[in-house]
Amino acid sequence: MVPHWKPGWKPIESRMGPSGQYAPQAMASMDEVSARVDELRSLIDRHDVAYFEQDAPTIADPDYDGLVRELAELESRHPELAVDTGAGHRVGARPSEAFAPVSHAVSMMSLDKAFDQDELTGWYDRVLRRLDGNEVGPLTCELKFDGLAVSVRYENGEMVRAATRGDGRTGEDVSANVETIADLPKRLGPDAPSLIEVRGEVYLKLSSFAALNEMVVAIGQAPYVNPRNAAAGSLRQKNAAVTATRNLSFFSYQMGEVDGVPQFGSHHESLQYLASLGLPVNEHAETVASMDGVSDYIERFRLMRHDLDYEFDGVVIKIDDLATQGRLGATSRAPRWAVAYKLPPEERTTKLLDIHVSIGPSGRATPFARLEPVFVGGVTVSTATLHNEDQVLAKDVRPGDTVVVRRAGDVIPEVVGPVLADRVKASKPWKFPTNCPICDQPLERVEDMAATACVNVSCPRQIRGRIEHFVSRGAMDIEGFGESRVDLFVTAGLLGDVSDIYSFDLEAVREMEGFGDLSVQNLRLAIAESRARPLGNLLFGLRIPHVGSTNGDLLATSFGSMEALLSADEEAIAAIDGVGPIIARSVFLWLSNPGNREIIGRLRDAGVNFTGPARSELAPILEGMSIVVTGALEGFSRDDAAAAVSDRGGKSPGSVSKKTTALVVGESPGASKLSKAEDFGIPILDEAEFSTLLKTGVVPAKTEEEGETP
Questions:
Q1: Does the domain made of 111-342 have the CATH classification 3.30.470.30?
Q2: Where are the domains of the chain?
Q3: What is the pLDDT of residues 112-128, one digit of tens each?
Q4: What is d(CA 199, CA 92) in angstroms, rounded to the nearest whole number?
Q5: What is 627-696's CATH number?
Q6: What stretches of 360-412 adopt beta strand conformation (E)?
Q7: Of the candidates 48, 78, 62, 61, the residue with the CA atom closest to the CA atom of residue 15
Q8: Is 254 helix (H, G, I), strand (E, B) or coil?
Q9: What average pLDDT does the chain have?
């Protein structure tokens, strides 16, 4: 973790520029430089042991990379301090004495890394210089998996041994454990060579990781921090029976020692050969013609980073021609013909300053961490969620801890867990508050759920939250009611519930700072226009538990009016296709509440629309079908396309699954939806074929020449 820095030194976070890039600091003297180099080597040695030998890293990957890069920068500036071995120059770490040693006939090397486009271009320029400007030829791009490097040896088609990378020359014998990996064949096909060592990555699928953590939490153990650590710990179990329960997976990406293997001209051909033997090879390996193709590949998979069932933290770029690889050779630790481009970090370590609890619009109490600002996932993060009381207890994070923070894509940043090695002895477990921090009323644990909530319906935060939701775009869509204005109106006592919107004193608003005749008139018009919104919007806007916009529309269409819905019993609501008993129970109880009925009555008196849309008279030719739409269609808006499907008895969800009947693709479609449809073998339709489907109820068949992609 970040050490106790000497005078004049700054923590590694402060050496990051505004975009998270490493920015080395100028040194004051040669003695200081020498001292820093020694300190960096000591830190890297310690973290190597924690990561490679103990499978319990005490620093996030980007922070570790920053230390290695700083050491490399100082050694480059001061060659007299450089060494050829040791911290920053080794491959992996020494193998554990808990396993029998295995010598690799062909060394298992590491990869040099590039952290931005300039460094990637620098690698390619060095390749060109070594080739005297000659053509490099195609390049192969592969995903960089976040797992554990392993070599599996087959003799005459039989798996005989498996070993970890270790220090690159000597690894650990994990044969019994690797034999439990279902992805790996124990015997290759009849065309297997007399000898082949397959290099690859042992990893844990995200779905398997979630199931594993659910299991360990259920038996009172702390959850694993991430899939990589879980995979490494699972593979290095002394008891192979334990490994067998972890559902590990494997991807092949290289060959080591071989005998009887055909001669290949390219790396991509060797991947195809591995696949032909029945070995798992990732389907996303691609050959591109130039560095422009590399950039396109990186960007495409950066956007797909969270669409796959496994983690990858970068892209490996290799010169595809094997003869060119031979001419380029390798350094003591890495081939010159390959580089690993690291995607922006999604995990970093920082200090947890304090834990607070926020109250949501529905009263839910959510703990969150206040952090020392850290750059992660493309933004600077100073707060992160802790989800709920159970998660805080399971992770045992405490104010003052050094913690791992994760921000994946657009997901809200979360605290993954503490770095226990850095915890001060005097720290005490954090306790969830007993009272609401807003209204000071008791917090209650929701039955059969992990949620804790403020149940005081008069809590100011809940009042604001209900009104904020009611006026939002997906509900009554009333412009001029941003969060700050809702807060202002509630604080001033002008709004007590959503029905007050249609009767509150706009003349009093006119007297408030920042309001004038025009803004008040616009507010009056926006409120008046909202009275005509569809009934489905109103039902969604009332924030009935479990009722989203889709269910709101479904209830409005099925019952035809608010009065009919108010008169319906629980069984009648549950009888609606797509509602079910849980939603029906929630709707019935909410509508039966006298206070809620009073609000509905005031909305009726205010002239809000209580009439639902007419039922469609179209034949239900799409009944039982699930049609997903992605991209822009010429003849349909997204809502129109969904309505066209639902009017014919079908469903139009927002995501692709194995139950999807067809994917309709317009201009600029979502890459993840296309990829999933192709993986699941789901028919892909253009707009004309979608129109045919709407008329006939039959998914148009594709000819072999047409294929499955428009």
A1: yes
A2: 12-81, 111-342, 348-445, 460-605, 627-696
A3: 999 888 999 999 999 99
A4: 15
A5: 3.40.50.10190
A6: 364-376, 379-385, 402-406
A7: 62
A8: strand
A9: 85
> Regarding the domain with residue range 348-445, which homologous superfamily does it belong to in the CATH classification?
Nucleic acid-binding proteins (2.40.50.140)
**Displacement of CA 242 from its chain's centroid (Å):** 28
Q: Is 137 left (phi over 0), alpha (psi -120 to 50) or beta?
A: left
Catalytic residue (choose from 113, 144, 342, 351): 144
Closest CA to 7 of 42, 34, 36: 36
What are the tokens at 454?
């403020």
- What is the pLDDT, as a whole number, of residue 666? 87
d(CA 119, CA 340): 11
CATH number for domain 460-605, candidates 1.10.150.20, 3.30.420.40, 1.10.357.120, 3.40.50.150: 1.10.150.20
> Which residue, 582, 587, 549, 583, is CA-closest to 565?
587
Cβ pair 150, 200 in contact under 8 A: yes
Q: Please report how many Cα atoms fall inside a 13 Å half-sphere around the Cα of residue 137, on the Cβ side.
A: 15
Model confidence over 543-597: pLDDT tens digits? 998 888 778 888 998 899 999 999 999 999 998 877 889 899 999 999 999 999 9
DSSP state of 180: T
pLDDT of residue 579: 83
- Residue 362, amino acid: S
pTM beyond 0.70, yes or no: no
Q: Where are the beta strands (DSSP E) in 110-147?
A: 113-114, 139-145
Residues 61-105: pLDDT tens digits? 667 777 877 887 787 777 777 776 555 555 555 556 678 999 999
Token couple for 503 = 């009767």
Average pLDDT over residues 654-659: 86
Looking at residues 261-280, what average pLDDT do you find? 95
Contact between 229 and 55 under an 8 Å Cβ cutoff? The reply is yes
Residue 136, sorted as left (phi over 0), alpha (psi -120 to 50) or beta, turns out to be: alpha
Q: Is 144 a residue of the active site?
A: yes
For 12-81, give the CATH class. mainly alpha
- What percent of the chain stands above pLDDT 90? 49
